[in-house]
Amino acid sequence: MNSIEVQDLTKKFGSFTAVDCVSFSLEKGKIFGFLGPNGAGKTTTIRMLCGILKPTAGRGTVAGLDIVKENEQIKKRIGYMSQRFSLYPDLTVGENIDFFAGIYRVKNPARQERKEWALATAGLARDRKRIVRELAQGFKQRLALVCSLLHRPSIVFLDEPTAGVDPLSRRDFWHLIYRLGVEEQTTVFVTTHYMDEAEHCEIIALIQDGRIVAQGKPAQLKSSVKDRIYLLAAEPADKARELLNRQPMVKKLIPFGVAWHVFLDGDESARELKSRLGERQVRILRFEPVAPSLEDVFVSIMEP
Questions:
Q1: CB 98 within 8 A of CB 112
Q2: Helix, strand or coil, per DSSP, at residue 54
Q3: What is the rounded distance in angstroms from the CA atom of residue 238 to the CA atom of residue 175?
Q4: Helix, strand, coil: what percent of the chain each, to 5?
Q5: Domain topology for 4-219
Q6: Are 48 and 9 in contact (CB under 8 A)?
Q7: Which residues of the chain have pLDDT under 50?
């Protein structure tokens, strides 16, 4: 049985359609990435799956339970971590864990065992008496995650869980997510704006204007990019960028550090572009074909 199954899920607010006929399924223990720009419908979809919002149309099940008829039972089977830090900053680490264990009705002796598990998993065993507002943001997010897992949910929903977190802390957070899948067989549904995080997901769906425009494994999505992509570094950079934006053979241009990913339709266009840049006294430092990244996929689909 799949952890999540959704068919033609739709949510309207008056005349505005926030989610439009969304369909997908997710196997148990998988990490599912839900990607899209702000306002695309990601959070609205999560709220329907969590039983918080009633869909306008369509159907779906979470942990085998109907999202409309059995929404209260769903809330007992899932964990949820919102975009905003959801814990109590004036309580200690241990007090927050105790509070959420009570909310989730985790009873003794399991409560103490789960508390120790949460402290160890979050790397906060020595900080149980520390006030939460004093923690670094990365540790706050890890604490919020383990608090959402105290009742051993089969599915956890993470809505942009690493927003505002430094790269090293994001990496540690994802190591923790992997452990959940391996050790706890937890299904993870995560929304993110970070393309490097999306690379960690086993299945990805891209949503725009409330509709899923592509879904599949990362490798499948990358292979769907039809243009040839070249990594170009040149100087002076400002002049190079201005010229690139004016060339008809350049279909898309994505900043990539101090260089660009240039979308072209083939090697002949690449040779012509290289010649034109040279004619205008732009020095090419690097110009070579590269495999598409997920960011390339995202831009090619979202900005056709």
A1: no
A2: coil
A3: 39
A4: 40, 30, 35
A5: Rossmann fold (3.40.50)
A6: yes
A7: none
Instruction: Provide the residue ranges of all domains of the chain, joining segments of one domain with +.
Output: 4-219, 225-302
Which DSSP letter does residue 156 get? E
In sequence order, the 6+-apart residues with CB closer than 8 A to the CB of 60 are: 4, 5, 6, 7, 9, 48, 49, 66, 67
Alpha-carbon distance of 74 to 3, in angstroms, equals: 11
CB atoms within 10 A of CB 29: 17
Pairing state between β 259-264 and 228-235: antiparallel
Would you give the DSSP letter of residue 182? I
DSSP state of 131: B
- Reported residue count of the chain is 304
Backbone phi and psi for residue 62, each to the nearest 5 degrees, phi listed first: -130, 120
Q: Which of 252-290 are b and which e, b meaning 16 or more Cβ less than 10 Å from the residue's Cβ?
A: bbbebeebbbbbbeeeebbeebbeebeeeebeeeebeee
Q: Do 225-302 and 4-219 have the same topology in CATH? A: no
What per-residue confidence (pLDDT) applies to 54?
Answer: 96
Sequence-separated (6 or more) residues with CB below 8 Å from residue 71: 51, 52, 54, 65
Token pair for residue 96?
């927050």
Q: Please choose, from the candidates 167, 174, 178, 172, the residue with its C-alpha nearest in 3D space to the C-alpha of residue 123.
A: 172
Q: Which distant-in-sequence residues (6+ apart) come within 8 Å of 271 by Cβ?
A: none
Tell me the CATH architecture of domain 225-302.
Answer: 2-Layer Sandwich (3.30)
**pLDDT by residue (tens digit) across 262-273?**
999 888 899 999
Q: Are strands 228-235 and 283-289 parallel, antiparallel or unpaired?
A: antiparallel
- What pLDDT is recorded for position 247? 92
